[in-house]
Amino acid sequence: MSHHREEDHMQQFLDVTVGDAAAHHQRRRGSFDNYARMVAAPAPVGLGEKEIDFLKRRDSFYVASVTDDGWPYVQHRGGPAGFLKVPDRTHLAWADRTGNRQYITAGNLDRDDRVAIIAVDYPSRTRLKLLGHARFDPEPHAATLEQLGIDGRLEGLVTVEVVAFDWNCPKFITPRFTADEVRAATEPLRARIAELEAQVASSRAQR
């Protein structure tokens, strides 16, 4: 069964995620008042420039959906930086590319459209969490794909209406770097090594 929000703006992330049981633990540990103040603050009207830029630069993220039996099901989605589209301040979209063809997430969305997404920038130890209502379209219109800048073979298009988002602290995020990031960071060093090797070779040739 799908769940659709009635508000015209986003909600506070903690207002959506913190129930009575979590609040009980917060009170027991002394963090309830601090989080209550955060929930009382005005909710954002949409993703800001910081969030949009962060999401557009990601080359992977994790998305969780809900199975028929209520189990959380998490999948990894990856591609070149920019494969996650942000068409406006309240929506995300990405092409669902051909994989193992289990269609578990697609099937989950047919019954319950709620999803949770976490995107991580490991070098900067930054993570963004989002909640939303998702839709899987197995036959998206060509005009829609063109507008989003999506081409190539795909199983369908996933669009998400973002309901809430929250930034996490960097604690316990281990910095990791992609092969491209390592190459870019070491390029000056490799260029300097090549320069020194050439100087050594030239010096030996002149002896």
What does this structure look like?
It is a single chain. The protein is an alpha+beta fold and 207 residues long. It contains 7 helices and 7 strands; from the N terminus they run ααααββββαββαβα. It folds into 2 domains: 46-175, Roll (Pnp Oxidase, Chain A), CATH 2.30.110.10; 177-207. It has helices at residues 13-17, 20-29, 32-40, 49-56, 104-111, 142-148, 179-205; strands at 60-66, 72-78, 85-88, 91-96, 114-121, 126-137, 156-168. It has a 7-stranded antiparallel β-sheet. A hairpin with a 2-residue loop joins strand 3 (85-88) and strand 4. The longest helix is centred in the last third of the chain and has 27 residues, at 179-205. The chain is extended, with a radius of gyration of 22 Å. It starts with 12 loop residues before the first helix and ends with a helix. 15% of the residues are buried. Residues 1-7 have low confidence and may be disordered.
Mean of the pLDDT scores? Answer: 90
Main sheet properties: 7 strands, antiparallel
State the helix count.
Answer: 7
H-E order: HHHHEEEEHEEHEH
How many domains would you count in the coordinates?
2
Could you name the CATH class of the largest domain? Mainly Beta
Write the CATH homologous superfamily of the largest domain. Answer: Electron Transport, Fmn-binding Protein, Chain A
CATH architecture verdict of the largest domain: Roll
So what's the oligomer here? single chain
Spatial arrangement of strands, main beta sheet:
2-1-5-6-7-4-3
Q: Share of helix among residues?
A: 25-40%
Number of strands: 7
Here the CATH topology of the largest domain equals Pnp Oxidase, Chain A
The fraction of residues in strands falls at 25-35%
Q: What's the alpha carbon Rg, rounded to whole Å?
A: 22 Å
Distance between the termini: 82 Å
Low-confidence stretches: 1-7
Coarse morphology? extended
Computed structural class: alpha+beta
